[in-house]
Write a structure and sequence with these properties.
The chain is α/β, with parallel strands linked by helices and about 350 residues long. The chain contains twelve helices and ten strands.
Length: about 350
């Protein structure tokens, strides 16, 4: 009798282990098939999807195209009042008009504040313009930026300065100006559009990745300083997204490049990215990853297997993608920050 009981227990244990392993395999398969963001963000997005930005004033930089544009649409539909900034006034105006159309908000609920993010001298003036109009700022979304593609050895130092001026110092300086207002109100929310390259290095992207890594350094330190100040920090790390910035990038020198996007490119639709980003902002998530596979998978590999997999699996995946895309890089004059 005892031996039969022991045998039954062993069989049950074996079945439980098989069930556990199969569950993990099924879960991993579903993750690979359907996940386009980190699991925490997806949990909040699908199980706690109510987003209410009524009476919230949200200032979005880089709002004239791409993620910033579509984020404006998501937030205004949830009741937000928007201050929209960018350098392309024609596009910015069109985005403002579209916001009014899709939300039926009052004209005064949309304010256009066009300026160049790395023109530090106008930051105080722009902050005053927003406060004079709305009386408050609840959320600052630092989304303005420029990208680049060039090999490390071929980059002119002027490009490093330009990228850091726009992607880092412009963002940091504007945040410091708005932070004074947040500290006075004893509340506020700072959102930063980083990138997959803010967590992982990629071929031909050293200056851009360096600027995004720098943002994490600045804002993780700020997060630690704001623990008792009721001021939240959200770092958003998108992977490749269909946007104007991916079409027009700086190359090795300070110039512009047109990159034709192909149907085979692994890029998330901008609307989907902005929809997930709006959830991350609403739920005040500290950091979120938004990307299709294989890039989302590389986030997890780098996070939990930082040594062996970082030098083998990740680089194999990333190089395979970038070898295909870099063939379509065609230099042109100029550069774009939106």
């Amino acid at each position: 009798m005892g031996s039969c009981l022991n045998s039954s227990v062993m069989e049950l244990g074996t079945l439980l282990w098989i069930f556990f392993i199969l569950s993990l395999l099924v879960g991993f398969a579903l993750f690979m098939l359907y996940a386009d963001a980190d699991l925490t963000l997806l949990f909040y997005h699908y199980l706690n999807h109510t987003r209410d930005f009524r009476d919230k004033v949200v200032w979005i930089t880089g709002a004239s195209s791409g993620i910033g544009e579509y984020l404006a649409y998501e937030l205004v539909k949830s009741g937000a009042k928007l201050a929209l900034s960018g350098v392309n006034i024609e596009r910015l105006t069109a985005v403002g008009e579209r916001c009014k159309e899709i939300s039926n908000c009052a004209a005064e609920d949309i304010l256009l504040v066009p300026f160049q993010i790395n023109n530090f001298e106008v930051h105080d003036e722009c902050v005053k313009k927003v406060l004079d109009h709305f009386g408050q700022i609840d959320i600052l979304v630092n989304n303005a930026g420029i990208a680049h593609r060039a090999k490390f050895a071929d980059i002119d130092i002027a490009l490093d300065r330009q990228l850091f001026s726009v992607n880092v110092f412009g963002v940091v300086n504007l945040t410091r100006r708005v932070l004074k207002h947040f500290l006075e109100r004893k509340k506020g929310h700072i959102v930063v559009t980083s990138s997959i390259t803010g967590k992982l290095g990629t071929p031909d992207g050293s200056a851009y990745a360096g600027s995004k890594h720098a943002l994490h350094g600045y804002f993780e330190c700020l997060r630690s300083e704001m623990v008792d100040e009721n001021i939240d920090i959200t770092l958003v790390c998108p992977g490749p997204v269909v946007s104007k910035m991916t079409k027009r990038r700086s190359t090795g020198k300070v110039e512009e490049a047109d990159i034709k996007q192909q149907p085979t490119d692994v890029k998330m639709e901008t609307q989907r990215c902005s929809d997930l980003m709006a959830t991350a902002i609403s739920c005040k998530l500290g950091e979120c990853w938004i990307s299709l596979h294989p890039f989302l998978l590389t986030f997890y590999i780098a996070q939990y297997f930082p040594t062996k997999f970082r030098t083998s699996v990740i680089m194999f995946i990333v190089k395979s993608y970038y070898r295909k895309s870099k063939k379509r890089l065609t230099p042109r004059n100029g550069a774009d920050s939106h």
